[in-house]
Design a protein that fits this description.
This protein has helices at about 30-40, 80-85, 95-115, 115-120, 130, and strands at about 1-10, 15-20, 50-55, 55-60, 75, 135-140. By secondary structure, it is α+β, with helices and mostly antiparallel strands.
Length: about 140
């Protein structure tokens, strides 16, 4: 299966699969449709979490959620990713795809290894932050 980033826990099990979409102004309905279409074409991953990250939102589904269901959690990412954008001289409005991929990977590494409150706000009660602790991140295919 082809996904943008896969996170594997310290025991080697797949924790989460991520799709990066450098878009703004998405909503839960868009996210649910995107996920359903993706799963129809490449299949569903085995990880505990499936996550779509856009320039301004994070959509997270927990394991076992039906294909066409809305996200289990939705988080406004601008307060979290805004400082990352500023460090590279970009804004949500000027962000390009390659820049966004780099920012997302840097943020996910911080979630896995340095989960400070300001970078995980809105995700504290999802179980996601704990599951990502010390995760190895891999670009590309997720099993």
């Amino acid at each position: 299966m082809r996904y943008d980033i896969a996170a594997y826990g310290p025991n080697g099990g797949l924790v989460a699969v991520f799709q990066a979409r450098p878009r703004r102004g998405t909503d839960k309905e868009w996210a649910a449709q995107f996920r359903s279409n993706l799963f129809d074409h490449v299949g569903a991953p085995d990880g505990r979490y499936f996550v779509i990250v856009t320039i301004d939102k994070l959509y997270l589904w927990t394991e076992g959620t039906p294909y066409d269901a809305p996200p289990t959690f939705e988080v406004d990412l601008l307060p979290i990713l805004g400082p990352y954008y500023a460090r590279i001289g970009a804004t949500a409005e000027t962000m390009r795809a390659l820049e966004f991929d780099s920012v997302m990977m840097r943020w996910l590494r911080n979630v896995a290894y340095f989960p400070r409150p300001e970078i995980v706000q809105g995700l504290e009660h999802t179980g996601f932050v704990e599951a990502m602790r010390d995760a190895d991140l891999e670009l590309g295919d997720a099993a």
